[in-house]
Specification:
The protein is 34% helix and 30% strand. The chain has 256 residues and is of the alpha/beta class. The protein contains 10 helices and 12 strands. Strand 7 (125-136) and strand 8 form a beta hairpin. It has one domain: TIM Barrel (Alpha-Beta Barrel).
């Protein structure tokens, strides 16, 4: 049985971790270096570091803060934000990243997924997708958003995920903008739709508010490999060790 993973997320702006609701109203939380070390020491399985304004500001990731963060992490580290080329992959990997997350850069240049998978291996390429429900023609559709959730691409999210998987992505991060920061539970409808079209590892992001939300996620959708969260960990509402112990007690295979 595959072990499920718990992954804290560091949304970084101007060198500081921030958090908002529905991708808006960002508030300062802490230093990414301090949080990364705490999560690495505290039982997290992996860690995600997003420079959330890099794409919008058309710049590269702040390499100094990333390098310092990576030095304090002894678990797999995924890094994203402003990744538009193979040179960007090379730069963040040299800073200490284990995997690289592409989002807006892959939308602008879909060949990036294929090219990066060929050069670095598909296990290194993570396709992160920001998804929001949009009303079109009286029907609800899942659309892909880019530039930190600022721009509706008009693309169908499920078809984009199917394409990214075919191009060589090794893992998917599904960011539900509708549930982000709301703490009402993961977006099970969206995640179920994703699991129907791919066998790639799926990381669920957006909506975690309590331990029971993770129990529900893994029981309802066995195809989901990991739960990603930010605020409940940042503000000490849930500890990773307590979460993993409870999940194990509920019959969910965890590394504890």
């Amino acid at each position: 049985m595959i072990t499920k993973r718990i992954i804290p997320c560091l949304d970084v702006r101007a060198g500081r971790v921030v958090k908002g609701v529905n991708f808006k109203g960002l508030a300062d939380v802490d230093s990414p270096v301090a949080l990364a070390k705490a999560y690495s020491d505290g039982g997290a399985d992996e860690l995600v570091f997003y420079d959330i304004t890099a794409s919008h500001e058309a710049r590269g990731i702040f390499t100094e803060i990333l390098t310092e963060t990576a030095k304090n992490v002894f678990i797999p580290l995924t890094v994203g934000g402003g990744i538009t080329s193979l040179d960007d992959f090379d730069r963040v990997l040299k800073c200490g990243a284990d995997k690289v997350s592409v989002n807006s850069g892959a939308i602008k240049n879909p060949a990036l997924i294929h090219d990066a998978a060929r050069r670095y291996g598909d296990q290194c390429v993570v396709l992160s997708v920001d998804i929001k429900r949009v009303q079109t023609g009286g029907k609800t559709a899942f659309h892909v958003f880019q530039n930190g959730g600022r721009v509706d691409t008009g693309m169908d999210a499920i078809e984009w995920i199917r394409r990214g998987a075919g191009d060589g992505a090794g893992e998917l991060v599904i960011n539900s903008m509708d549930t982000d920061g709301v703490k009402g539970g993961f977006d099970l409808e969206l995640l179920a739709a994703v699991c129907e079209v791919t066998k790639l590892p799926v990381i669920a992001s957006g909506g975690a508010g309590k331990i029971e939300d993770f129990v529900t996620l893994f029981n309802a959708l066995p195809g989901v490999d990991a739960g990603l969260a930010a605020s409940i960990f940042h503000y000490g509402e849930v500890t990773i060790r307590d979460l993993k112990l409870t999940l194990a007690q509920n019959g969910i295979n965890m590394r504890v």
